[in-house]
Design brief:
The protein has helices spanning about 20-25, 45-55, 65-80, 120-125, 155-165, 210-220, 230-235, 270-280, and strands at about 1-5, 10, 30-35, 40, 85-90, 110-115, 130-135, 170-175, 180-185, 185-190, 195-200, 225-230, 240-245, 250-255, 260. By secondary structure, it is of the alpha+beta class. The two termini are about 25 Å apart. Bound molecules: N-(5'-phosphopyridoxyl)-D-alanine (PDD).
């Protein structure tokens, strides 16, 4: 792993953040995850737009322009020597006093974690994964909005542990009204009667870059899509289900807890969307 820490390329052991950084003390930070495809950044503008929107929502000023962020990501990826990189950009509030208000933090810290892109097991795509409906709710939009990709991910950390307790690789959270929202680091989709459906943003979830791209690819391909409320029963009764994220792409879901999805094999619409996304990536 290589770390670009405020513009300095460092090894993990060399990069140090102060214990007084409010990112460490209060989870007062934002982040986003970008990957390369064919050695080039993929959907970087969309990720940077989301990073800016996350930062604006917590009144954090990003100390670099988008052009500078792109330059730094490219420089770090090249220096890493990775053929494909996972790049995690983190902007923290910076060092200050032990006081919730960030007025004592004059300078945000920014860093990019550059790792070789992880290859997920091939069976995930051929057979599908197990997800679990977890007990913890996604925090409501009226609290810390799920639209903000912040360093305060404890809601999702707990959900991930609850999912792992059931042998699932992803935990699906409901909102306090009982509607399906998203996974801990992915968006959830179902297919019912030939239509691909994903929870509407108003249900309280991260506006996934892959989610938006899959919506666009489906529409262009003539696949019916809907962003709507999805109940727990509708999820369990789906013909097909899949998750989407930057690092994983489109992954078919085989099991939701103990319930088999459809006939237990990745369905035709899931496979089509997975292929459309791969084609789009290859055009990068
Ligand atoms: N996670 N929902 C949540 C809560 C997420 O953290 C993510 C991404 C997604 C999918 O969004 P996108 O398609 O833009 O990657 C949905 C990244 C990959 C992560 O935290 O590692």
């Amino acid at each position: 792993m290589l770390i670009n820490f405020n513009g300095e390329l460092l090894q993990p052991g060399e990069a140090k953040v102060s214990v007084l950084d409010h990112g460490f003390l209060f989870g007062d930070s934002v982040y986003d995850v970008i990957r390369t495809v064919n050695g080039r950044l993929f959907t970087a503008e969309e990720h940077l737009a989301r990073l800016r929107s996350s930062a604006a929502a917590i009144r954090l000023e990003i100390p670099l322009t988008n052009e500078e962020l792109l330059q730094e990501m490219n420089r770090s990826h090249t220096a890493s020597g990775n053929s494909e990189s996972y790049i995690r950009i983190v902007i923290t509030r910076g060092e200050g006093e032990i006081d919730l208000h960030p007025r004592s933090c004059p300078k945000p810290n920014w860093m990019m974690f550059v790792l070789p892109l992880h290859k997920w097991p091939a069976e995930w795509y051929t057979s599908g994964i197990k997800v679990a409906l977890v007990g913890i709710h996604r925090n409501p939009s009226t609290a810390l909005s799920p639209k903000i990709k912040s360093g305060n991910y404890l809601n999702n950390v707990i959900a991930r542990m609850q999912a792992a307790d059931e042998g699932a690789v992803e935990g699906i959270m409901l909102n306090p009204e009982g509607w399906v929202t998203e996974g801990t680091t992915s968006n959830i989709w179902i297919v019912k009667d030939g239509q691909a459906r994903t929870p509407a943003l108003r249900c309280g979830l991260l506006p996934g870059v892959t989610r938006a791209l899959v919506l666009e690819l489906a529409t262009t391909d003539g696949i019916a899509v809907d962003e709507c409320e999805i109940s727990k029963n509708e999820l369990l009764d789906a013909d097909e289900a899949f998750i989407t994220s930057t690092t994983k792409g489109v992954v078919p879901v085989r099991l939701i807890g103990r319930e088999l999805v459809g006939d237990g094999r990745p369905g035709p619409i899931t496979k089509r969307l997975e292929q459309l996304l791969r084609d789009r990536e290859q055009a990068n």
